[in-house]
Description:
The complex is a heterodimer of chains A (643) and B (524).
Chain A: H1 2-8, E1 13-14, H2 22-39, H3 47-71, E2 79-89, E3 92-100, H4 102-125, H5 132-151, H6 155-173, H7 180-211, H8 216-225, H9 228-246, H10 254-257, H11 263-272, H12 277-284, H13 286-290, H14 293-316, H15 320-340, H16 343-373, H17 391-405, H18 411-423, H19 430-457, H20 474-494, H21 499-508, H22 520-544, H23 556-562, H24 567-613, H25 620-642
Parallel strand pairs in A: 1-2
Antiparallel strand pairs in A: 2-3
Helix pairs in contact in A: 2-3, 2-5, 3-4, 3-5, 4-5, 4-11, 4-16, 4-20, 5-6, 6-7, 6-11, 7-8, 7-9, 9-12, 9-14, 11-16, 12-15, 14-15, 14-19, 14-23, 15-16, 15-18, 15-19, 16-17, 16-18, 16-20, 16-21, 17-19, 17-20, 18-19, 18-20, 19-22
Chain B: H1 2-10, H2 18-40, H3 43-68, E1 73-75, E2 80-82, H4 84-104, H5 126-133, H6 141-154, H7 161-179, H8 186-218, H9 223-232, H10 237-255, H11 263-270, H12 273-298, H13 303-325, H14 331-350, H15 363-386, E3 389-391, E4 394-395, H16 405-408, H17 410-424, H18 430-444, H19 448-474, E5 483-484, H20 489-507, H21 510-518
Antiparallel strand pairs in B: 1-2, 3-4, 3-5
Helix pairs in contact in B: 2-3, 2-6, 3-4, 4-6, 4-12, 4-15, 4-20, 6-7, 6-12, 7-8, 7-12, 8-9, 8-10, 8-11, 9-12, 10-12, 11-12, 11-14, 12-14, 12-15, 13-14, 13-19, 14-15, 14-18, 14-19, 15-17, 15-18, 15-20, 15-21, 17-19, 18-19, 18-20
Amino acid sequence: MSTYLAAAEPATAEATGVLALGWLLIALPLLGAAVLLLGGRRTDRWGHLFGTAMPALACLIALAQFAALLERDAEERSVGSHLFSWIPVGALEVEVGLLLDPLSMCFVLLVTFVGTLIHVYSIGYMAHDPDRRRFFGYLNLFVAAMLLLVLADSFLVLYVGWEGVGLASYLLIGFWSYNPTYAAAAKKAFVANRVGDFGLSVAVLIMFAQFGGVSFSEVFAGAEGASEGVLTVLGLMLLLAACGKSAQFPLQSWLGDAMAGPTPVSALIHAATMVTAGVYLVVRSAPVFEGAPDAQLVVVIVGAVTLLFGAAIGCAKDDIKKALAASTMSQIGYMMLAAGLGPVGYAFAIFHLLTHGFFKAGLFLGAGSVMHGMGDQVNMRRFGGLSSVMKVTWVTFAFGWLAIIGFPGLSGFWSKDKIIEAAYVGDGWRPWVFGTAALVGAGITAFYMTRLFVMTFHGKRRWTDDVHPHESPLVMTVPLMVLAVGSALLGLALGPTGAIAHWLEPVVGAHGEEEPVIAVTLLTTLTVVLVLAGAALAWLTYERRPVATTAPRGSWLTRAARRDLYQDTVNESLLMHPGAWLTRSLVFFDNRGVDGTVNGLAALLGGTSARLRRLQTGFVRSYALSMFAGAAVVVGAMLLVRL
Amino acid sequence: MNTGLTLAAEFETPSVEYRLLAPMLIVFGVAVAGVLLEAFMPRPFRHETQLGLAVAGLLAAFASVVMLAGDYSVAASGSVAVDGPALFLQGAILLMAIPGVLATAERKVDVGGVFAPAGSSTPGSPAERLLVAEKITQTEVFPLLMFAIGGMLLFPASNDLLTMFVALEVLSLPLYLLCGLARRRRLLSQEASLKYFLLGAYSSAFFLYGVALLYGYAGTVRLSGIAEAVSSEAGNETLLLTGTALLTVGLLFKVGAAPFHSWTPDVYQGAPTPITGFMAACTKVAAFGALLRVLYVGVGGLAWEWEPVIWGIAILTMGVGSVLALTQTDIKRMLAYSSIAHAGFILTGLVGTDAVGADGELLGVSSVLFYLVTYGFSTIGAFAVVTLVRDAAGEATHLSQWAGLARRSPVIAVVFTFFLAAFAGIPLTSGFTAKFAVFSAAWAGDARVLVIIGVIMSAVAAFFYFRVIVLMFFSAPAPDGPSVVVPSPLTTVAIAIGAAVTLLLGVFPTYVLELAGLASQFVR
Lengths: 643, 524
C-alpha cells in the first residue's frame, strides 16, 4: 500500500520540448474535423486524404513523445502542460491542462496508430459513399475527443473528452441515418451512454464538494484522507460511467446495435478505443478505488458478469459484426475484472486493452473486408469457404482469431493469461469465483471465435446467388496486415519481457510477486487445454457438419443468447415502459395543469393589458390628469409615511 | 446709495472653474458654433461640417471628462458638482450621443433625410425634390442636439436645484423641437412634439413648485444645504415632504416612470426614430442622474420616507411597462413601453440605499450607473435598426410587417434579436449583467419583495421581446412586406457601437462595473 501511494503521486514536471506538443495531438484532428465539416462539399475531393493525414501526423508526434519519455528516468515520465484557465469562479478554479504519463502515452499511441490505420482502411471501404468526407470529419472529431479524454489532467476536462467521444460515436453509428433502424441504434447508444455520463457528472460534483477540486492531483491527494463511504460512492459513480462507455453490465445493451455504423467505426470506436475508456477511467482513478474495497469488488463482479454475458451472446450470433461486438463486450469484461483487482491487475488490464486494440481492430476490419467482398452481407450462415477467394483477409483474420482465443505465443495469450492468473490471486472465495469465471470465459471465447472463423472462411460455400466475393483493394488489406503483425507480436514484445508492467509502474504502482491459488504452470496448461477444447468443439460442430443457411430453432439458451439474453426486454419492461408511462402522465399533467395555469396567467395579463391600454387615450388632458393624480398620491404617501 | 453699496458688496462674482466645466463648455461651445455655421456656411457643406463638428465636440468633451476622472469637487460657486456619478454619467451621455448623432445624420436610407426640410413640402412632392436637389435640409438639428446634450451633461451634475431646473429646460426645449421635425408622418410628429411640450411644461411646474417648497423649508436651494437642514430637523416638515414629493414627480416624469409615463409611447412613436433612440437613451441617463443626486445627496436623510414611495412607483412602473407592452402592435410603441419597464427596473436599484459593496461602493448608485450605460447603448442600437425596415411609406413600424424579416435580412434580424435579448436580460448580453446588478443591490438593501416582483415582471417582459423574435424568424413574410435598406456607414457604425457595447458588457462587465463602483460617491 505504501509503495502504491508513493507511486500514485509522481512528481509531474512541466512539459518541455516535444513533450509540450501535447495540445497539438488534439488540435490536429480537431482541425481536420473543422475543415472537413465546415468546408462542406468543396473538400470532397481531398477530404479523406486530409482527414487521414491529421491522425497520422498526431501519431508521428506521439512516437516522438514516446521516444522522449523513454529517454527519461521512470520517475520523471509524468509531464503536465498547462493550457489555460477555464473556470476561475470563486472557489472553483478549473485549469485546462494536459497530462502525459506512461498510462496516457499507451492510449495516445493506440488511438493515433490504430486510428491512422483505420483511416487508411476507410479510404477504401468508404470509397463509394457520397458522404465519405463527412465520415472522415466525424472520425477526426472522434480522435480529437478521445485524445482529450486520455490526455486530460482533471476529471472535468476528461468529461469534455468523454462527452466528445459520445457525440462522435452517436454521429457515426447513425452515419447512415436514412435507415430508421440505424438512427434508432444511434439514439439507443446515446441514451445508454447518458446514464453512464450521469454517473461521471455526479462523481465530478462529489469531487468538487469533497476535495475542493477536480484535477487528478487534487482528487487523489484528497482521496487519501477521505472516508471510505465517500470513496465508495465516488467509485460506484465512476464505475457507472465506465459501464456506460465500455458497454458493461448492466448498460451493455447499446453495443450490439452500435454495429449499425460503418465497419471501420466499429473497429475504431466500438472495439479498439472508445469502449475501453471505461477501463482507462477505472485505472486512472486507482487511488479512489484503492480506498474503497467495496467499490472494487463491484468492479470485479461487473467485469466477471460481463465477460460471461458477452461470451454467451457471442456463441449464438449469426451476424458477424454482432458476434464480434459480443466478444468485445466480453474482452472488456476481462479488462474491467483486472482493473477491479487493484495494483495486481492494473497493468494487465491496460496490457490486454492494448493487445485487444490490435487484434479486435484487425478482426473488425477483416469482417469489413469480408462484407466488402460479399455485398455488405453480415449473416455468417451465408458465408463459408471464403479462405480460397480472400487470401489476405483470411490469413490476417486468422492471426486475430488466434490472438483473441489466446493461442500460445500470440498477443492475446500473454495478456489474457495474465489476467486469469491475477484473478486467481487472493484468498477466500474470491479467487475461486472470479478466476474460474475468467478461465471458463477463455474456453467459451475459443469456442465462439472459432465458430465465427470457421463459419466465415471454411466449410461449404453457402453464398447467396448474387454475390461475387473478391479480395479487397490494397488500401484496405495493408492495414489488415499491420494489425495482424501487431496481433501476433505485440504481446510477446510487451508481456514476457515485463516491459508493460515496468512502463506503467510509475502510474499504477508496483505489486509484489503474489502467487495465484493454483500454481501458474498448472493454470497456464489448464487455460490452453480449455482453449483448445473450445476451439476443437467449434471446429467439429461447424467445419465437419454442414451449417444450415437458416438458423435452427436451437435450445432455450441459444434463443436467449440470440436475443442478447433478453437485455432489451428487461430494459424495456423495467425502464422504457414505466418511463413512457411517466412521460405520458407528465404530458397530461402539463397540458391540463401547468399549461392551464400558464395560459390562464397569460390571458389574465393580456386582458389587463388590453384594459389598461384604454387609459392611453391620446388626449393630453387625460394624461395631465393622471399625472396630477399620481403627484397627489405621491405627496399623500410621503406625508402619510411620516404620520 | 448705501443699499446699492451693500448689494454690490454682497454680490459675489461667481467663480468659473473652466477646467472642471470643460465638458459642458465644449458642448455648448460647439452648439453655439453650430448656430453660427447655419448663418455663414454655404448650404452644400453644412451637413458634413455640422456632423464633423458635433462628433469632434463630443469626442473632445469626452476626453476632458476622462481627464477630470477622479476629481471630487464643486465648481461655479458650488452649483455644479464634479464627482464620480456626474463624470460617469457625463461620459456615458457623450459616448451614447455619438451613435445617436451618427444615426440622426443618416441620409441614405431615406433620400432627403429624416427631418422635414421645409414645413410646406410633403414627402415625395416636386417641391421637396427641388429642396433636396438644392441641398436645402434641416442642419439645425445638430446645434439643437448639442444644446440638448449640454443640458443633459449639466442635469446630473447640478448641485443646486435652480441649476438643475435650468439644465432641465436646456435639455428639454431642443428635444421638444426635434420631436416635431419628422419628414414623414408629420402630423403624428407634430402632435408628439406638442404633447411632449405641454406635459413637459406641466411637469416642470411640479418641479419648480417642489423647489420653492424646499427653499421655504431649508432657506437654500443648494442640495448640501437641504441635507443639513434635514439632518438638523429644523423647519416645517410638511414643506419638506411635499417639496420632495413634487420635485421627485418632476424628475420621475423625465425618466418615464408610471404614473407619469403617459407621454412616452406617444412621443416615442411620433418623434423621428433616431431622435427617439437618442432621447430614450440619453434623457433617461441624465434624468436618473439628477434623481440619484436629489434623493441621495439632498434628501438622503429622508430615505425612510421616500423609499416606500419609490418602491411603489418602481412596482407600478415595471407593471405598467411590461403589461402594456404585451398588446402593442407598433414596434416603436412597444419599445417605448419597454423603456418604461426598464425605468422601473432601474428604480429598484435606487432603493438599495444602504447596500454597500465590498470596496465601500454604494451598490444602489453603481448598479444604476451601470444599468444606464447598458440600456442606453442597446436602445440606440435598437431604434437605429428600426429605421432600416421600410416600405414605400417610410418606416414599417407595425409589428405584422416584421413577420419573416429574418428571411429578407438575416443579419438585421440577428442584430435586432440580440438587442431584444439584452432588453429581456438574457445572459451574455449586457442586459443580464445590468439587471443582475440592480436586483442584487435591491436585495442587499433588503427590498426582497421588490426584487421578486422585478423578476416576475422581467419574465412578463421577456414575452413581448420574444414574440418579436418569433415573428421575425418563424413566420412567413408578408408578400408586400417591407424591405431592409442598406444604410450608409453612419447608421451601420451606430448599430455596431450599440451591439458591440451590449456584447462586451455582457461578456466582460468587470471593468465598467468596477468603474461604476469607483464612481459611486457623491460630493456633498
